[in-house]
Amino acid sequence: MLLKVYKSEEVTGFFRKKTIASYWAPAYLKCPECGAEKLIFDPRKHGWDGEMGEDCSITEQGQLTSFSDTPGKVYVCCTFQGAENYEELVSEGVKNPQDYFDTFSLWFGQSPECVFEYECA
Q: Between β-strands 18-30 and 2-12, what pairing exists: parallel, antiparallel or unpaired?
């Protein structure tokens, strides 16, 4: 799979200029064979804040671009904190408590590199 994310660049330094790239959600998977794209993460829709319709983190900074020209493996990590919050969701009848994660990180490549991390709650 190819990974498409938003990329912004900042030039730092006074004498020795250095360009620092930052990557932002939303993130999309793209099939290199057929070109089909699928949204895999957008903090406005996913995680605790996204599910609750609350304010979310910064998104869509810079230009939408491929993270790498080479297809690779995509890894995600979601964390859940405060078990009492999830017990409350279940008792309220929420059918998808697994979608209310607190953090999300996205990794890509054969030797996985962290693309970005978001706090979602």
A: antiparallel
Q: How far apart are CA 27 and CA 40, in angstroms?
A: 6
The separation between CA 94 and the C-alpha centre of its own chain, rounded to angstroms, equals 23
Over residues 73-77, the mean pLDDT reads: 97
Q: Average of pLDDT values for 1-18?
A: 93
In the numeric block, the tokens 């209310």 are attached to 100
pLDDT reported for residue 121: 87
Rounded Cα gap, residues 71 and 90, in angstroms: 39
How does DSSP classify residue 97?
G
For residue 99, the SS3 value is helix
Token digits of residue 92: 């309220």
- What is the separation of C-alpha 30 from the centre of its chain, rounded to a whole number of angstroms? 15
Token code pair at residue 20: 């620092």
pLDDT, residue 83, reads 84
